[in-house]
Amino acid sequence: MSPDLDLRVLPDELLADTHDYVFVVTYGRTGSTLVQGLLNALPRTLVRGENGMYLVHQWRGADAAVTLGQRHLKHRPRKVTSAFYGSHLLTAAGFVESARTLTKTMLLGLRKEHEYDRLGFKEVRWHEIAPEETESFFAWFEQVFPGARYVLNTRDPERAAGSGFWQRVEPDEAMRQIDRVRAVQEFLRSTRPERVLDTRFEEITSMDPAVSDAALAGLATFVLGDCDAKLLGSLRTVLGTGHGPLPFGASRNHDQENPDD
Questions:
Q1: Among the listed ranges 10-14, 39-43, 93-97, 233-237, which one has the minimum average pLDDT value?
Q2: Exposure string for 119-131, b = 16+ CB within 10 A, e = fewer
Q3: What is the DSSP string of 137-148?
Q4: Helices and strands of the chain, counted as H and E runs
Q5: For site-directed labelling of 95, which of 62, 115, 166, 200 has its Cα 20 to 30 A away?
Q6: Nearest C-alpha neighbor of 205 from the set 257, 150, 161, 149
Q7: Where are the domains of the chain?
């Protein structure tokens, strides 16, 4: 194996997949569990809730391992006498494949893979990606999840930070985390404009049916390509269901100061 071989170059067949992927990128108290519910109302779509952003840690571990493997190719890792015996097997392709298998297994649970065309999750901890990691992380993320699309869900930051679990965080830290997620959203917006959709809590739960319907139809169209009257009716029904740790019930008839997480 040549020491100049870039182990991060993946074969085309590894990048192929039978599923599409959609992820909700947001911060806490934006109505993201409601958005999760709306996505799950779409046919053949399964979007799970938060997972602690474990993929950031998995990416860091994979990057460290692959870097080590590259660095020590000169030490003949195929030889049993080498201090780095086997390190040439620490390849990007292996980590990508295992990350995809693990994540799909956890997303599906007991569900059958063939029952879904789209998989994903919503998460509020995207602030855990450091600024200098952003580009590399999403490059890896989209090797794991080819063609990933992103729902960039927002709510007025001051109102979001004043409710729910943010009350257990120092105000300055809460705004720092929210601003960091907003920076991640802007990165995705500017680098992948064709694969992102901006949604706003205030529009989805608007008292004006035209505004709310437009937001619902836009979400469905982003994921499926269109939205007929029947599907729009199903999404309206979801609005009347409580979502999150502090369910707010029918979102246009209850206090919007208690949105879902």
A1: 10-14
A2: bbbbbbbbbbbee
A3: HHHHHHHHSTT-
A4: 10, 5
A5: 115
A6: 257
A7: 19-239
Question: Taking the model in full, what pTM does it have?
Answer: 0.87
- Mind giving me the DSSP string for 102-133? HHHHHHHTTS-GGG-SEEEEEES-GGGS-GGG
Work out the angle at residue 63's Cα, subtended by the Cα atoms of residues 60 and 64, and round it to the nearest 5 degrees.
85
Strand partners, 45: 118
Question: Which residue is it, tokens 């080498």?
Answer: 82
At 17-76, the pLDDT tens digits run: 789 999 999 999 999 999 999 999 999 999 999 999 999 999 999 999 999 988 888 989
Q: If we measure between CA atoms, which residue out of 71, 30, 11, 23 comes closest to residue 256?
A: 30
The pLDDT assigned to 12 comes to: 54
Residue at token pair 């980590």: 95
Structure-token pair, residue 51: 């997972």
Residue of higher predicted confidence among 253 and 24: 24
